[in-house]
Design brief:
The structure is a single chain. The protein has 15 helices and 18 strands. It has about 475 residues and is α/β, with parallel strands linked by helices. The chain folds into two domains: about 200 residues, NAD(P)-binding Rossmann-like Domain (Rossmann fold, 3-Layer(aba) Sandwich), CATH 3.40.50; about 210 residues, FAD/NAD(P)-binding domain (3-Layer(bba) Sandwich). A hairpin with a 2-residue loop joins β17 and β18. α1 packs across α12, α6 crosses α7 and α9 runs parallel beside α10. It is globular. The two termini are about 40 Å apart. The mean pLDDT is about 95. The structure holds NADP nicotinamide-adenine-dinucleotide phosphate.
């Protein structure tokens, strides 16, 4: 019998999750010299591209052009896309183990971290993940509603997600009108009465998680001032700016320049605060009304960095809505190892680890592997590393010791038997064309389908 990876018996790979890390893993496998391979890319949604479609802000269209790379991968005859197939629903991990030599989990981080403070359950307290999914027309979040009738909103965390949601809340909605923002979100933003967005960082400007371009974009927003307290724009002794990267120095310089500009004259304000932590969300009639903050100081964390501790000084800021943007978190997959503490799949060099041992034939890439960090491009190098481990295992004969039905029909047959109606890449291209033409009618780049039923109806596929 031929060995897996040869023309008579291609190596059969299932990639679970058709977001950036999944596509980059597929790309690295296709590029492996001399490897005969078949890659099946599964996604729980009928649409591919994960966070590029459902996470990247609508006013950051340039970032989305990365899908051209994914498109090339998807069009390769060795690759098949099975949209609308969920592991744990139409397929089990055992089904995959019986049909693939190697399985790659590229499932990202579907949930979010909590702040664990009183009042987090009040109406008007949401995760940024929900807000992002809502304005991007993600089927999981399109039904949510956000009360934008208040004048003041608080965003907790100062990573790039916090920057995205703050910008979307503070900008003139007309600058989004031609993008692929969901139509209902554009209408809601047009009706918004929000004038102040408090952006709350628990550490100082030298520790801020946002990228320089993101903070610089605030300074360019029409009709909006970026307001920073000069006394908070300082770099403390434990911040060790002298050892910081050029990017961090650039961010600090920008913040200090802006702090010197004062209040400005625009109606809308982004009030960027440093060294403050929400300690309680206060409500009235069950709804968020204000946020109590404690001031922090920075102390040496013993690892070359700075951590914050409260100093017992408090203030309360008005906010009719609060969005926590304190990081994403993975969701466990039944039958696959998961580290509850870190919120992702434990691994060694991309090999899934259960207990102390690597699980033969199972791998992980992207946020599911390393947690929610890095830009989209970071996932390419990360997926390449996991694929190196996969190829090393293949070469060393470390494939799982179990029979695999490697025929091309094995997976489609099973899906059919289970009553699944997978969406192919050709069908996605049809949806893509429909979205673009719906968008063109309204002067937008695209008008997304935001409900799975509508996508399937447009493809004449039953649910
Ligand atoms: P992130 O970069 O890890 O930022 C999380 C923020 O939450 C940090 O400011 C963190 O502060 C803060 N935080 C955590 N726990 C907190 C708590 N209990 N109370 C108050 N603040 C808390 O995460 P993210 O913004 O979700 O972004 C995830 C990844 O996607 C990042 O790598 C990001 O660069 C990327 N991304 C990129 C773009 C873009 O390129 N335009 C857009 C969106 C996302 P500490 O630093 O003190 O921990």
């Amino acid at each position: 019998m031929s060995l897996p990876g040869t023309p008579d018996r291609p190596l059969c790979i299932a990639i679970i999750g058709a977001g950036p890390s999944g596509f980059y893993a597929a790309e690295a496998l296709l590029k492996a010299p001399g490897l005969a391979v078949r890659v099946d890319l599964y996604d729980r949604l009928p649409t591919p591209f994960g966070l590029v479609r459902g996470g990247v802000a609508p006013d950051h269209q340039k970032i989305k052009s990365v899908v051209m790379v994914y498109e090339k991968v998807a069009m390769d005859p060795r690759v098949r896309f099975f949209g609308q197939v969920r592991l744990g629903r139409e397929l089990t991990i055992e089904d995959l183990r019986a049909r693939y030599d190697q399985i790659v989990f590229a499932v990202g981080c579907e949930s979010d971290r909590r702040m664990a403070i009183p009042g987090e359950e009040l109406a008007g307290s949401h995760s940024a993940t929900e807000f992002v999914g809502w304005y991007n027309g993600h089927p999981d979040h399109r039904h949510r509603s956000f009360d934008l009738s208040c004048e003041s909103v608080a965003v907790v965390g100062i990573g790039n997600v916090a920057m995205d949601v703050t910008r979307l809340l503070a900008c003139d909605p007309e600058r989004l009108a031609q993008t692929d923002i969901a139509d209902y979100a554009l209408e809601a933003l047009r009706r918004s009465r929000v004038k102040t967005v408090w952006l709350l960082g628990r550490r100082g400007p030298a520790e801020a998680a946002y990228s320089p371009v993101e903070i610089e974009e605030f300074g360019k927003l029409a009709g909006c001032d970026l307001v920073i307290k000069p006394e908070e724009a300082v770099v403390g002794a434990v911040s060790r700016l002298e050892r910081a990267e050029a990017n961090d120095k650039k961010k600090v310089a920008y913040v200090q320049e802006h702090a010197a500009l004062g209040e400005g004259s625009q109606v809308r304000k982004i009030r960027l605060r440093f060294c403050v932590s929400p300690v309680e969300i206060l409500g009235e009639g069950g709804r968020v009304k204000s946020v109590r903050l404690e001031k922090n100081k920075l102390v040496d964390d013993g690892k070359g960095g700075a951590r914050c501790v409260g100093i017992g000084e408090f203030e309360t800021i008005p906010a009719g809505m609060i969005l926590r943007s304190v990081g994403y978190r993975g969701v466990p997959i039944p039958g696959v190892a998961f580290d509850e503490k870190s919120g992702h799949i434990p691994h060694e060099a991309g090999r899934v680890v259960a207990g102390d041992a690597a699980v033969p034939g199972e791998y992980v890439v992207g946020w599911a592997k390393r947690g929610p960090s890095g830009l989209i491009g970071t996932n390419r190098a990360d997926s390449v590393l996991t694929v190196q481990s996969m190829l090393e295992d293949l070469k060393a004969g470390r494939l799982p010791a179990r029979p695999v039905d490697a025929s091309a029909e094995a997976a489609p047959k099973l899906l059919e038997a289970r009553g699944a109606k997978p969406v192919s890449y050709a069908q996605w291209k049809k949806l893509d064309a429909l979205e673009r033409s719906r968008g063109a009618e309204r002067g937008k780049i695209r008008e997304k389908f935001t409900q799975i039923e509508d996508m399937l109806a447009a493809l004449s596929v039953g649910p």
